[in-house]
């Protein structure tokens, strides 16, 4: 049986095809391009699978931010938090863990026990703890996201709660002549400090990280100090789409 | 009959036999229109914000309802009750401590029940006679329980309500018997519920009794209320004395004993999941560590505080949990 999962994220739309519990195809397009180039708006949102170059699937599941814009024709919509939980269960084989998903514009912390969600914290109001914060700060520092994520030592202190004020604070530090490595580490550390309160209420020793920020080595390093084990998924950005396929294969039939 | 407050289930046979009208202060507090003011009153008098809402509510309920005698359980329930006692005494309310023994054996139970009986100067014969009378009414509450889990006719809330009231029989045994009989007649003629997720509720009774209704939005029904069921002494038929009956009561004793009974009911009632309710600032929150560890069935812990209604975060958690539990039951996950 073939399952197609689409995760409509705030920045990118991720598509995964699974067959017999194996991922056989995955790709992403920008959210703008997805709606503009691959959808028709007639009696709901109709996805042009041919254009997307995806073969017809037996089950089609969509998920993503906000229920209305994820309601694709012929797709069953599932809750985004659940999709991520299933994705992480499939990718790790674990049943008890804490999932931290840091996407472009939102953060989810989810407690999974015995394979079910038992607690969750969402942050969708503060840009300073999302991927977008790292992107902006990397731009200010004129380094790539990849390079930014490699620095964790001796972070410069950035105290602002707000993403916009953090930028001015960072510029102030640049003007003080602080070296770029410490500035990068400071950005990473300030992000980690904002993520931490989301996780404090959750019990457990294993943390699974998904979303684009899972690629940030420095943040992984900081988190590793708080847990016995920090697991980065093989396909952190595709986790929601993978979870959709997993749900489709296991549940809807 | 003179009113006497109780802070949880105690050998209420003794109070009835002594001619008192027992009033469960928890019920008096939680069903009051101005329940929040009871808590406020307690906080104004100095009860910490970081203390249990039930303790504060019972304190307010005593003061606002002119209760001048209270039997308070100082061991086996909540050690804060010990301090509550002191404050009540200072306010001129007479308190009678009752302590479930730490040792879970017949001799120990016999000792505390006899002490309590002597405190109210009633003979064992009268107490045993009263036990038989109360057990007749308790068996009606058991019937409502059976109508919940076996016949799928009584609701989770009814199951909660009619068993919990067996702590004090609402102060009037005959009237409560009549109420139960009428309720059973009403429930019996209902159509059974369609197949649903079957949930168990464990832990102290909730502040947020809307939980029973809320879960029904997700095709789920609570068909087991652990502590409320214990309040109705479901195994009284196996007890040949009041001592035996209060020995075979899980709530005040060790977790292992409680868990063994819960596990038995999880299997018998074919439960899909458990909701463990804990009260903010209660020592039973710590017991949750062991509960979750020892129960194989998926368990969600909900922590209530002062409100009688679930907050949006609790609702979101329940929704996510029940959603996935439904997948688990419906599919092959």
Could you give a quick summary of the protein structure above?
The complex is a heterodimer of chains A (253) and B (333). Chain A has 253 residues and is α/β, with parallel strands linked by helices. Chain A has helices at residues 31-37, 49-52, 80-92, 131-141, 145-148, 163-175, 180-199, 217-224, 239-250, and strands at residues 2-8, 12-19, 22-30, 39-41, 45-47, 59-64, 76-77, 97-102, 107-113, 116-123, 206-210, 229-232.
Key descriptive features of the protein:
heterodimer, A: 253 residues, alpha/beta, five-stranded mixed sheet, B: 333 residues, four-stranded parallel sheet, 51% helix
Describe this structure in words.
The complex is a heterodimer of chains A (253) and B (333). By secondary structure, chain A is of the alpha/beta class. Chain A contains 9 helices and 12 strands. In chain A, the strands form 3 sheets. Chain A has a 5-stranded mixed β-sheet with strand order 3-2-1-6-7. Chain A has a 5-stranded mixed β-sheet with strand order 10-9-8-11-12, with helices on both faces. The termini of chain A are close together. The model of chain A has no long low-confidence stretch (mean pLDDT 90). With 333 residues, chain B is an alpha/beta fold. In chain B, the strands form 2 sheets. In chain B, strands 2-1-3-4 form a 4-stranded parallel β-sheet. A 4-stranded parallel β-sheet of chain B has the order 6-5-7-8, with helices on both faces. In chain B, helix 3 crosses helix 4 (53-64) and helix 7 runs parallel beside helix 9 (173-188). Chain B has helices at 12-17, 25-30, 35-44, 53-64, 80-90, 106-119, 124-149, 156-164, 173-188, 211-214, 226-231, 242-247, 255-268, 284-294, 312-330, and strands spanning 2-6, 20-24, 69-75, 94-99, 197-203, 220-225, 273-279, 299-304. Chain B is globular and about 60 Å long. At the A-B interface, helix 3 and strand 10 of A face strand 8 and helix 15 of B.
């Amino acid at each position: 049986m073939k399952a197609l999962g689409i995760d409509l994220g705030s920045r990118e739309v991720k598509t995964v095809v699974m067959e017999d519990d194996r991922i056989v195809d995955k790709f992403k397009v920008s959210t703008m391009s997805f709606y503009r180039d691959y959808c028709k708006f007639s009696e709901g949102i109709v996805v042009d699978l041919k254009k997307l170059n995806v073969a017809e699937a037996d089950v089609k599941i969509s998920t993503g931010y906000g229920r209305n814009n994820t309601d694709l024709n012929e797709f069953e919509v599932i809750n985004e938090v659940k999709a991520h939980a299933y994705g992480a269960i499939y990718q790790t084989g674990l049943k008890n863990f804490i999932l931290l998903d840091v996407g472009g514009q939102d953060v989810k912390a989810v407690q999974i026990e015995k394979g079910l969600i038992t607690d969750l914290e969402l942050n969708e109001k503060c840009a300073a703890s999302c991927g977008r914060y790292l992107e902006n700060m990397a731009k200010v520092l004129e380094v790539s996201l990849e390079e930014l994520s490699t620095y964790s030592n001796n972070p410069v202190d950035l105290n602002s709660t707000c993403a916009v004020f953090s930028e001015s604070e960072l510029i102030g530090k640049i003007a003080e002549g602080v070296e770029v490595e410490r500035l990068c580490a400071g950005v990473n550390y300030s992000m980690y400090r904002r993520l931490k309160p989301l996780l404090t209420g959750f019990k457990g020793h294993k943390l699974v990280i998904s979303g684009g920020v899972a690629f940030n080595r420095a943040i992984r390093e900081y988190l590793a100090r708080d847990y016995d084990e920090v697991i980065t998924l093989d396909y952190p950005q595709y986790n929601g789409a993978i979870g959709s396929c997993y749900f489709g294969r296991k549940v809807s039939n | 009959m003179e009113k006497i407050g109780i802070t949880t289930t105690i050998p209420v046979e003794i109070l009835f036999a002594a001619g008192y009208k027992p009033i469960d202060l928890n019920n008096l507090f939680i069903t009051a229109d101005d329940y929040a003011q009871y808590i406020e009153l307690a906080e104004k008098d100095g009860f910490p914000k970081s203390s249990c809402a039930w303790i504060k509510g019972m304190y307010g309920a005593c003061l606002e309802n002119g209760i001048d005698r209270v039997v308070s359980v100082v061991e086996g329930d909540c050690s804060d009750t010990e301090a509550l006692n002191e404050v009540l005494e200072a306010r001129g309310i007479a308190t009678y401590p009752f302590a479930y023994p730490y040792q879970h054996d017949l001799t120990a139970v016999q000792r505390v029940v006899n002490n309590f009986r002597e405190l109210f100067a009633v003979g064992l014969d009268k107490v045993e006679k009263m036990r038989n009378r109360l057990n007749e009414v308790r068996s009606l509450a058991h019937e409502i329980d059976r109508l919940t889990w076996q016949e799928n006719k009584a609701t989770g809330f009814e199951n909660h309500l009619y068993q919990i009231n067996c702590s004090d029989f609402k102060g009037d045994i005959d009237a409560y018997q009549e109420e139960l009989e009428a309720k059973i007649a009403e429930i019996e003629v209902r159509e059974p519920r369609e197949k649903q997720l079957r949930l168990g509720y464990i832990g102290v009774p909730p502040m947020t009794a809307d939980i029973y209704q809320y879960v029904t939005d997700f095709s789920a029904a609570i068909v087991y209320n652990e502590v409320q069921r214990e309040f109705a002494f479901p195994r009284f038929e196996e007890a040949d004395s009041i001592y035996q009956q209060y020995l075979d009561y899980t709530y005040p004793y060790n977790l292992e004993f409680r868990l063994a009974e819960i596990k038995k009911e999880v299997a018998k009632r074919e439960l899909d999941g458990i909701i463990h309710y804990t009260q903010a600032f209660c020592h039973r929150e710590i017991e949750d560590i062991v509960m979750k560890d020892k129960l194989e069935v998926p368990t969600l812990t909900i922590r209530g505080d002062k409100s009688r209604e679930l907050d949006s975060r609790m609702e979101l958690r329940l929704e996510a949990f029940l959603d996935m539990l439904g997948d688990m039951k419906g599919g092959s996950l």
